[in-house]
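Researcher: Going back to the complex we discussed earlier. I've cleaned up the inputs and rechecked each line, so this should be the final set. Can you rerun the prediction on the complete assembly and write out the structure?
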Amino acid sequence: KPPSGSAPFLDVAGLRSLVCDVLLQETFYQSKGRPFLYRDHDHTFGPFLTQLVPALTAFLCGHNPLLASSALDLKPEVNYYWHHGEEVVVHGHRKGRVDPVRFQIDDKPHLQIRVPKQLPEIVPLESDLGEVPVIDHKPSKLPLFKKQYENRVFIGSKVADPCCYGHTQFHLFPDKLKRQRFIKANLEDQIEVVYRANGIASLFAWTAAQAMYQGFWSEADVTRPFVSQAVVTDGKYFAFFCYQLNTLALTVETVRNNPRKNICWGTESKPLYDVVEDGSVKGLNDEVLFHLVSFLLNRPKEL
Amino acid sequence: GVRQAQWLTKTKLVEGLPPAVLSIVNDPAHQLEGFEERVKHAISHARFWDTTEAAPRREHYCPVLFEDLIHVCRLMSAKYPSLTKRMLARNYRIAATWERESILLQVRGLNGVLMNSMTPIPPVASKEEVLATEKHVLETFYPISPTIDLQEVNVYKELNHTGFRDGYPYSHPHTLFFLESANIRPNRFRPEQLRAKMLMFAFGNALAKAKVLYGNDPKVLEQPVVVQSVGTDGQLFQFMVFQLNTTDLVSNDGIKNLVWIDSDQNLYEKAQCIPEIKKRVVTKPAGIYGFQPDTFKKFLALYLHGTV
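Model: Rerun complete. Updated structure for the full complex:
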């Protein structure tokens, strides 16, 4: 796990009451109607996350000067396009020719925080991190990479924005991927996989797009690692990920002699609280809260 | 417009912002360092940088600009820790009913984004000013009925509800934000109508809160309830501070409520997304023109009002 800077004095009780207040407002106090089509995530958890992150950011900006110059995006778009591997064109007038496989990720995190300075690296750029598993199937067998339409690279705002490095993204799961559905279908071991897949894919796209904004691409590889963090949640269970991008060189020519690998660290999903009833939050999990706070307090060493 | 809203809410209009807010505007201790840079970045982010297309639409940039400005204001809580005792509420519903000269009026439904705080805003007008409103005569528009252009509805329950349950810690409505973000001009409110809408909803919120605090009987309030309101279409800002002095609204005499309105404040004149080129020469490069820092200072002052 990445080390976080030690804060001088953190008002822990204040943090706890802030989180409880936000949670209670969205679930209990504000009189909303019933969720439309039982879509809880739009009705309760979406607003909860949208309120929680700015409130925590404001609370902690005295401790982390990087947050004081940050930019907050609500439902931004993050896109990245890259080549990796080769395939033979199957039909059409270019049949038989060898083409690089094109990948495009279009992501819409619920919230993201962008900052003007890069987060510090976690491990040195050239360290040896182990092997990446090789998969033989075509990527279009996965639902994520079926068809590739537009080639877009976007971190959430254009190149002219001074806040061009990413700090933390917050992802909210749609209702289709609720835990109960997995448990009902006897697929409990797949729950963590969903969190991990979301974390790795979104963070790779974000860090690689940030690197591309700085002028690096597959022929001119990154000279410094790009680090970003993400929190993936379904409203109650939180999983934390941080990603270090060491290389962009993934095309067929450049990947041959490239010893560098990108690495993602992540936790399992843990609940933030047990239950909300009668106007109070029961079982607030301090570990998850401190994890969230240390993520937000992460900053370069010189600040 | 605003005159009709004044009659319906029994309010006296004062031009400009109240002295308490103006003192916050002019006090250099409350300025954020380098705030002009940050506000310009916020405008550029909302108007230019936030999209993969060349220029974002108003539906997109109006809420983004609002979020960015609130983010800049919120970061002031490093200096004033009591600012963390605020909470935004989106998509909340308000309900308030009152009688004006035997016509039953009500304000209901989703209106804007509300910012609540744990502590109420102190009254902005002194007691003398409040008593002086007794002599003020409300404008009537004979022969036009004051309820012209209002929707006539059959009401079965006379409802008064602040939108939140009892025991909510952030129980005092602080500021209401209205974003006119429709793309097509006819779908947006004109500035005059926007101000009237702001007045009606600020009044509705204040009335609902007063009824919760002091009961349903019409009376003059010992502690007036103050609710602020900001309306914008992404470029033009309207600022309003409303003070509810009385819930006795049936008759036309007696103490009136007060509202201070600062209208039509431009945050910037023009935001050029694509440079204007005439005959292959760039006549107007892309950027923000006519930036007015005073408008943001007023926005910030309304945000800080009540805690400083």
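Model: Worth noting: Chain A has one domain: 12-87+99-297.
Researcher: Good, that matches what I expected from the previous run.
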